[in-house]
Amino acid sequence: MIRRSVAAAIAALALSAPLAGQAPAVQPPSRPDAYAITNATIVPVVGARITNGTVVIRNGRIEAAGAGVATPAGAVVIDGRGLFVYPGLIDSGDRMGLTEIGSVPGGQDTQELGQYNPQNDVISAVNPSSVHIPVTRANGVTSAVTSAEGGMIQGTAALIDLAGWTPEEMATKGRVAMVMTYPRVGGGGRRFGGGGQGQGNQAEAQSRQVQELYDYLRDAGAYNARSNPVPQNLAFAALGPALRGEMPVIFDVQTEGQIRGVLALADTFKLKVVLRGATGSWALADTLAARKIPVIVGPLTATPEGDAPYDAVYAYPGVLAKAGVTIAFQTNDGGEGDARNLPYNAALATAYGLDPEEALRAITINPARIWGVADKIGSIEVGKVANLFVTNGDPLDVRTQVKHVFIRGQLMPWDDRHTQEYQKWRARPKP
Amino acid sequence: MMRIALFALPLAAGALAAQTPAAQDTTRRATLTVLKVDIPPAGTLVAITNATVITASHGTLENATVLIRNGKIAAVGQGIAVPAGAQLIDGNGKYVMPGIIDAHSHSASEGINEGSLSNTAMVRIEDVLREDAIGIYRSLAGGVTTLNILHGSANTIGGQNAVVKLRWGLPVDSLLFAGAPPGIKFALGENVRRTNVPQIPGRTPRYPRTRMGQEELLREVFTRAREYQAEWKTYEDAKARRRGDAKLAEPLPPKRDLQLDALVEILEGKRLVHAHSYRSDEILMLLQVAKDFGFKIASLQHVLEGYKIADEIAAAGAGASTFADNWAYKLEAFDAIPFNAALMAERGVTVTINSDSDERARRLYQEAAKAMKYGGASEEEAIRMITLNAAKQLGVEKLTGSIDVGKDADIAIFNGHPFAPASRVEMTLIDGRVFFDRNKAPTLEALIEALKRRSRPNTTSGGAQ
Predict the structure, then answer these.
(1) Contact A344 B420 (CB under 8 A)
(2) What ipTM does the predicted assembly reach?
(3) Which fold has domain A1-88+378-431?
(4) Which overall architecture, per CATH, does domain A89-375 show?
(5) Closest alpha carbon within chain B to A343
(6) How many Å apart are CA B416 and CA A370, to the nearest integer?
(7) Residues near B248 by beta carbon (within 8 Å), at least 6 away in sequence
(8) pLDDT, tens digit, 9 for 90 and up, residues B203-228
(9) How many Å apart are CA A174 and CA B119, to the nearest integer?
(10) Average pLDDT in the B148-173 region?
(11) What is the set of domains in chain B, with CATH numbers?
(12) In this model, does residue A26 exceed pLDDT 60?
């Protein structure tokens, strides 16, 4: 094993996945109830760092975290000397569980037909056996907001943990937000496609699409105002929580024009808005801060649109954060394997003005707050779900190695496709 | 000093037309500002002082000076006297590394794929370069100084590459890297098979549609190239004989074939092959074909399954130019692992990390660091994967790729270690000329400041400006 030096018991557990040449283990690994990570630097994200601290994990929760915490009898001990403990990272936008291989159509399950699909719940289509899940969590990403794409209203997004036997089991919040796009001059919102039309035609098409969106939401509002409507309209009914302000609405947009449109729409329908992508949001940073509208920034692995400044995509998270906007990061991984690079999106932002501590919060506690699960995940605090990972350094530094990953208090085995292939082929004898 | 306005239309700080949301788009309005390109003065005498210098060839030097004379590195090390009149670049707190070389790019090119034939050895990227492609500037801002601009992967034998230096602001011919040997793109696998693009009804699919067909095509065209080479040899021999015996009839030259000319150059080792490839089987096939016809593969491009056959690649003397961690975007990329670069290097392959995109090109240093994370490459090895090793794969290692005396002064200056999370490029030099300087660059911060100044009422009296 290449990545860790751990107590023998842990090593055995971590190696429970069959290696090349071995018969697969028939028995699932034993699952200890309690772990103690000792003598580590704990980075709780809320509050100060704790040196020489111990984190106790029991029955899936963080039972204790701090200096001078005793190791309970029977707990499996992980020596954390020289290591760091961070809360699990949260990717606030990707297509986890919906995509497998880009060029294989059968491996792409992200786009429904039609423009308006609020009735679709992505959680029922998340494949718990996707090979992307273990690969992603191996870098400390323990949760993801996964959603469909295409059209004007995509349905609900799901906040999932990257472990579990069934979609329901993986879900921290199965319906975490409604996902919409706002029409854009020059060809739709993100993934909305474009066109070779002239500007005039595009503006016309855009205003028609905007009108459609308003009409649709107005009709849905009228429907939801009725008691026991017959016949039932499942699409309109699905918009009920969003129109009552109970469920946030993610708007996948880019330009300032789209964002202004979203703000007007939000005023009309009293929507609780979360902007996502939104590379043009820097121009409205003060407005967004005043209106307490969070922005899911990223992916930063993108080039600026048109002739925007060369560093616009790298720098806008910092501009937003300085103005007081709550930010979180997304990778927008559509199956290309970028979700594990979530912390490096945050790193790029720190090179161009974002405070490193805020960058860390923007992949942990900020998204937990935005998605209404800060009582469960996003920091290392007693009572929270034990989603955390152990490293030999700053997770924003590419050179840092992840040593252990816990999801819901369980130590994740190193059984991801990449580690397995590496071990197998590294052992290939010289021809 | 010459100035080129690339993006005209700085709109006056006029009133916001407040009809539609789109009309209020200050983003759009504001970004149409002038990006002035200062043609930098020739790097006749430049000194970067007191910096941490990552040489890529002989370790990292602290508190070192890099002295540049006439575009070349004249001295590197500590205690180097700075001659009077030198342009000084304060390297205090900065990290200096060789300019980054991207061994796989499609930037700055008007067209990428001439895919109508399975062999387009005659077409040249050089003929479709654009000096005004914004990707050039953005790559410079990521510390990149040299690109290997390759033909696309639509056909087994693609067009001829262009190795360029990113001399932003100069005429297009100035981009070409004088001294770089010519090269060509080959491609294997899924893209050549065209299985991922819709079939046009009524149009006969282009041969080959399989990997076995790709091998056959390679053998076919190189067999023909050998015959063509022999025809020319026969002709040259006859000409030589006639020089000794004027009574002999004047031989007729063979018909010149630009496609075959390029292939003969490959056979004669004068043209470097950069071969797009993914799966281990197709790579082994190509190495065998090359061996049978007596030429080498300068670089296997992508080579995502190279880790499975690293020994064979090393034995064949082929370079490997791969992604840091991209995978699963195609069936043939499903076995890609981020350990690929480090594992191939461990087995003795000359490895580079490339971008294949204007996006990754501008943060190639971050990509290279992944070779340390996955598989434990040393820092120097990881640095070489985007500098000296790339220079070797492109045949320009005597000219660039490391900070050594006598080489071109192609240099990237960072505000921290290039692999550290908060590091960014501050300055990029090519031939000792500063082609990117963040202090003078049109940044988002500068744009926001400019917008604030515009929207603020002018309260200063006098209005001198």
Answers:
(1) no
(2) 0.92
(3) Urease, subunit C; domain 1 (2.30.40)
(4) Alpha-Beta Barrel (3.20)
(5) B421
(6) 33
(7) B238, B241, B242
(8) 888 999 999 999 999 999 999 999 99
(9) 52
(10) 97
(11) 3-35+442-455 (no CATH), 100-400 (3.20.20.140)
(12) no
